[in-house]
């Protein structure tokens, strides 16, 4: 954290009193801190307190008391990271929908650095579908969510919604800057993501529920650590703008196979997180199949096994696979590790609540011939960090 420039945005919730400790811990860690407050935040903690602790002026409005302009663009471009803590439901909604009616949101909309959002609100507000949707949207925009914790709330209720403890927030920032230095600098990664679609006719296909979120999170996490990443994605709604990522979009398993082996020989690490269809229709109708009988038979044939072929062809590459299991999970995952010549495999279970397709969270185990390590349920961006930490510590640097 030494020398990092952190712009703290404080919004108007009771948890704002913790912002004083956040500033103190950031300064103690060696960071340079500037603070922007919403008007309501000043009802919970004084600007003088945060100014004294940060040793910088606190910004509350577009114009200072002497009529000077507080340039939101300059503030945003100054920062190495923006931290919104606490982030109320109101400010979260404004950030997601671009309602720029105060300095805090103007700074957020101008930021080109990583943005960390630490929500804090009562448990019913935190659980409300609109809040969940806004948090998911904020994460899809590339922001890093620091989930609220469980505990006693200002309302007297106990539950999820409490601002993450300041020490935990600082730990996440430390981890981010520690990981994003250059730990994977000079490495070339290939990552596959999403589903494949196998056409039955021009309007129907065989596919699966993969969203691609895990693969995109892995690609971005590797890129943030300095790797050059080739990301090959099946049909998803996701995108990436990271300068270290080259994105190639495909539709079918055969297209993914061809694209993978354009790059595989030249990479250091391949991570196969795509959910590739095992089978495709033997024949694809050129016109839409009309409904005629009560039953219809479609003959299927095997698709090429991309992961097995990578395992057969690999030389010095490190190969990471994924296993989604419903029974005999570790046994089946270890069988896949061995049969496909993998260096490590990431196991997730459809029986784990919050894991699997389309979720924003995942619960994984990582297995090698020597090690099994289980992790708690986490947002997929944090899961990606755990996977890369394991890869670096146990595979690349062992």
From TrEMBL:
It catalyses: (R)-4'-phosphopantothenate + L-cysteine + CTP = N-[(R)-4-phosphopantothenoyl]-L-cysteine + CMP + diphosphate + H(+); N-[(R)-4-phosphopantothenoyl]-L-cysteine + H(+) = (R)-4'-phosphopantetheine + CO2. Residues 185-392 form the DNA/pantothenate metabolism flavoprotein C-terminal domain. One of its GO terms (biological process) is pantothenate catabolic process. Residues 4-171 form the Flavoprotein domain. Transmembrane segments: none annotated. Binds 1 FMN per subunit. Keywords: Decarboxylase, Flavoprotein, FMN, Ligase, Lyase, Magnesium, Metal-binding, Multifunctional enzyme. GO terms for molecular function: FMN binding; metal ion binding; phosphopantothenate--cysteine ligase activity; phosphopantothenoylcysteine decarboxylase activity. Gene3D superfamilies: CoaB-like, Flavin prenyltransferase-like. NCBIfam families: coaBC_dfp. This is Coenzyme A biosynthesis bifunctional protein CoaBC. It comes from Cruoricaptor ignavus.
């Amino acid at each position: 954290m030494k020398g990092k420039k952190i712009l703290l945005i404080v919004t108007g919730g009771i948890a704002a009193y913790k912002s004083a400790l956040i500033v103190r811990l950031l300064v103690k860690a060696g960071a340079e801190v500037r603070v922007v407050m919403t008007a309501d935040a000043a009802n919970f903690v004084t600007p003088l307190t945060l100014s004294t602790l940060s040793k910088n002026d606190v910004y509350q409005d577009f114009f200072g008391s002497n009529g000077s302009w507080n340039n939101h663009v300059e503030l945003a471009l100054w920062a190495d990271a923006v931290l919104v803590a606490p982030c109320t439901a109101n400010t979260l909604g404004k950030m997601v929908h671009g309602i720029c009616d105060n300095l805090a949101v103007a700074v957020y909309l101008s930021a080109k650095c990583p943005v960390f959002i630490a929500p804090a609100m009562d448990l019913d507000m935190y659980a409300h579908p609109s809040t969940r949707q806004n948090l998911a949207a904020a994460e899809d925009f590339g922001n890093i969510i620091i989930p609220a914790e469980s505990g006693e709330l200002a309302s007297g209720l106990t539950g999820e919604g409490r601002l993450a403890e300041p020490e935990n927030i600082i730990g996440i920032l430390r981890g981010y800057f520690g990981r994003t230095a250059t730990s994977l600098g000079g490495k070339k990664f290939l990552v596959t993501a999403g589903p494949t679609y196998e056409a039955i006719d021009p309007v129907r296909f065989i596919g699966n529920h993969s969203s691609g979120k895990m693969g995109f999170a892995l690609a971005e996490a590797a890129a943030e650590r300095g790797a050059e990443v080739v990301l090959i994605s099946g049909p998803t709604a996701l995108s990436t703008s990271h300068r270290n990522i080259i994105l190639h979009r495909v539709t079918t398993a055969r297209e993914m196979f061809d694209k993978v082996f354009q790059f595989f020989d030249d990479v250091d690490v391949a991570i196969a997180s795509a959910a590739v269809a095992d089978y495709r229709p033997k024949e694809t109708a050129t016109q839409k199949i009309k409904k005629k009988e009560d039953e219809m038979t479609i003959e299927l044939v095997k698709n090429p096994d991309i992961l097995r072929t990578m395992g057969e062809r690999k030389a010095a590459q490190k190969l990471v696979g994924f296993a989604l299991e419903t029974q005999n999970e570790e046994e089946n995952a270890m069988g896949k590790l061995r049969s496909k010549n993998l260096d490590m495999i990431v196991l997730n279970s459809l029986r784990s609540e919050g894991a699997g397709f389309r979720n924003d969270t995942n619960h994984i185990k990582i297995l090698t011939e020597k090690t099994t390590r289980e992790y708690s349920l986490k947002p997929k961006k944090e899961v990606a960090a755990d996977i890369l930490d394991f890869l670096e510590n146990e595979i690349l640097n062992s």
